[in-house]
Amino acid sequence: MVCGGFACSKNCLCALNLLYTLVSLLLIGIAAWGIGFGLISSFRVVGVAIAVGIFLFFIALVGLIGAVKHHQVLLFFYMIILLLVFIVQFSVSCACLALNKEQQSQLLEVGWNNTNSARTDIERNLNCCGFRFFDPNETCSSDCFRSHQCQPCAPIIEEYSGMVLRFVGGIGLFFSFTEILGVWLTYRYRNQKDPRANPSAFL
Predict the structure, then answer these.
(1) Cβ atoms within 10 A of the Cβ of 93, count?
(2) Which residues contact 130 (CB under 8 A, 6 or more apart)?
């Protein structure tokens, strides 16, 4: 059977959702590994990562069940949710790739001022204190604070922020195109007839 047939559409959709399932489990596993080894102490960051992983897992599960059973209602909701996720992810990915140095610096400073637990993780892992300036009168969890010879964290973070944003934006852009591919595959698959099914059956 040619690749435009019913079986090929079904297999491609199943493979795509299996990929999403693996990515979701990987995301949950990385978050659990980070908090298990003490790399991340912020439960908010871990909670967001795990929530995104669970959300992606359920989307993939809906798509997988819909593809296996050729269930019109599940496939319809899967297609709509995937389209909404594509719009959000594509917008965020483009924003990550479009940020200049000044915007990155402002965004990092806002994040620094609003996340105490993440600030502690950064100071401990990068061995720095303060964002723009080192103040020996403030508390700091880095090792260099004992000798009061710490450098501020902003230059260290900004050195890697551009690379991280490009990486995150590129990965997000790649997966956003797989999502629009999934929307197209689902739309085509919903309109195809199962050659082995009852011609009068809809669901």
Answers:
(1) 21
(2) 138, 140, 150, 152, 153
158 confidence band (pLDDT: 50, 70, 90): confident
Count CB atoms within 10 A of the CB of residue 131. 20
CB distance 57 to 24 below 8 Å: yes
- Decide if 10 contacts 65 (C-beta within 8 A): no
Domain spans in the chain, listed from the N-terminal domain onward: 4-191
Digit-coded pLDDT (tens) for 4-59: 677 888 888 999 999 999 988 888 887 777 666 555 555 666 677 788 889 989 99
CA 186/CA 60 separation, integer angstroms: 12
Six token digits for residue 1: 């059977």
| Coarse DSSP helix, strand, coil percentages of the chain, rounded to the nearest 5 percent | 75, 0, 25
- For the entire predicted model, the pTM comes to 0.72
Q: Under 8 Å CB-to-CB from 121, ≥6 apart: which residues?
A: 39, 40, 41, 42
Residues 175 and 10: beta-carbon distance below 8 Å: no
Give backbone dihedrals phi and psi of 71, rounded to 5 degrees, phi first.
-85, 115
- Which pLDDT score is estimated for 40? 57
